[in-house]
Design goal:
alpha/beta; Rossmann fold; about 425 residues; about 45% helix
Length: about 425
């Protein structure tokens, strides 16, 4: 296969993994970001995010992977421009496409380049761009990378979606060819359908999470074990076991944003997406149920010492966007509790984000003198703590709220802990 020069616009999670992945496949890649300090660090091989395997991949492809702040550097060398810029929600709930528009402005009237949209955009964005920029090459190629396993997801994708309309089919062929060595099924469709596939996929996964959390809440009231319920459900191949783990709610940069975006898109057409409204509401309430669990055992929380174990929204990432820890810290502060938080990766980078919570340098420091420990993120090191020995001696009250059903409940109970899981 002929090696296609590739441009990547935006060096965040998606952009860096995309750039490094294509470089690993043998392509010359020019990645552009507007932050000079980030670009300089990347040129030195310093990766600004925590993503397993990414640093090694970038260092290993350094001969083919180039970083720049200048758009002309990319335009001169590549014709396919993978757009990987952020599209955060605005106050109205609609996506902020200003960064996409900035890319279009820099591209000018070029007819030699094609935009390959990896950024998550509202359905209809591609059609709008093509209508306003007659003749522009445009391909929708949504990303399905999971933080914490993004490199593996790029190299071993479940599927690759490539959407194009009319005159952009030639560009879509070239984009599809880039992915052929990965051996995944390539879904060829129109632009609007490709845009919808991304939003619908994340919305469905978020729905599974909120559903099992509702089942967990009802199970607590009825004396059932939600873990056993989920196991029995997941063995049905029409349902499957993935995303059926009860917990304290989903967060991160994708699910909350994409669920809200799809709900907003539906609302803009006059359609009320009732199911997604419930998914969002359940998730927000789930994050707050931990407070009532603590109050059940401790009474009023004013003056109580609470340890939060985990700040990132999930393991193997330092991302705290929409993390449950942020909500918990805010609610605990509102109840007058004193909070100490620890995360093995985010560390003191989360300082100031947790409603006045102190950031500890270790799990044991966070736990020392605590009236309760709340496990928020299932980092492996938390399971390896000496719970029945050192941890119990350090805690003032041996109370654990396991927000991910991650710890050994039976061992903790046998050691004299009061254990609260989710749906158990």
């Amino acid at each position: 296969m002929e090696r296609e020069p590739i441009g990547v616009i935006g060096a965040g999670y998606v952009g860096l993994v995309t750039a490094a992945g294509f470089a690993e496949l043998g392509h010359e890649v020019w990645a552009r970001d507007i932050v000079p300090e980030k670009v300089e660090a990347l040129r030195r091989g310093e990766v600004p995010i925590h993503e397993p395997g990414l640093s090694e991949l970038i260092r290993g492809t350094s001969e083919r992977l180039h970083f720049t702040t200048e758009m002309p550097d990319v335009l001169e060398r590549a014709r396919l421009l993978f757009v990987c810029v952020d599209t955060p929600p605005t106050y109205s709930g609609d996506a902020d496409l200003s960064r996409v528009e900035a890319v279009l402005a820099e591209l000018g009237d070029s007819s030699e380049h094609a935009l390959v949209m990896k950024s998550t955009v509202p359905v209809g964005t591609g059609r709008s761009i093509q209508r306003r920029r007659d003749g522009i090459g445009y391909v929708s190629n949504p990303e399905f990378l999971k933080e914490g396993s993004a490199v593996e997801d790029f190299m071993k994708p479940d599927r690759v979606v490539v959407g194009a309309n009319g005159g952009s089919e030639e560009y879509a062929d070239r984009v599809a060819a880039l992915y052929e060595p990965l051996g995944a099924e390539i879904v060829r469709t129109d632009v609007a359908s490709a845009e919808m596939i991304k939003l619908a996929s994340n919305a469905f996964l978020a729905t599974k999470i909120s559903f099992i959390n509702e089942i967990a809440n009802v199970s607590e009231e009825l004396g059932a074990d939600a873990l056993e319920v989920a196991r029995g459900m997941g063995l049905d191949d029409r349902i499957g076991p993935k995303f059926l783990q009860p917990g304290v709610g989903f967060g991160g940069s994708c699910f909350p944003k994409d669920v809200q975006a799809l709900k907003q898109l539906a609302g803009n057409t006059g359609y009320h997406f009732q199911l997604l409204t419930a998914v969002i509401e359940v998730n927000e309430l789930q994050k707050r149920r931990t407070i009532s669990k603590l109050q059940k055992h401790l009474g009023p929380l004013a003056g109580k010492e609470i340890a939060l174990l985990g700040v990132a929204f999930k393991p193997n990432t330092d991302d705290v966007r929409e993390a449950t820890s942020l909500v918990l810290a805010g609610r605990l502060a509102g109840e007058g509790a004193n909070v100490r938080a620890y995360d093995p990766v985010t560390g003191h980078k989360a300082e100031g984000m947790l409603a006045g919570a102190a950031i500890a340098d270790s799990a044991l420091e966070a736990i020392d003198g605590a009236d309760a420990a709340v496990l928020v993120t299932e980092w492996p090191e938390f399971a390896e703590l000496d719970w029945t020995g050192e941890v119990k001696r350090r805690m003032r009250v041996p109370l654990v709220v396991d927000g991910r059903n991650f710890l050994d409940r039976d061992a903790l109970v046998e050691a004299g802990f009061t254990y609260e899981g989710i749906g158990r």
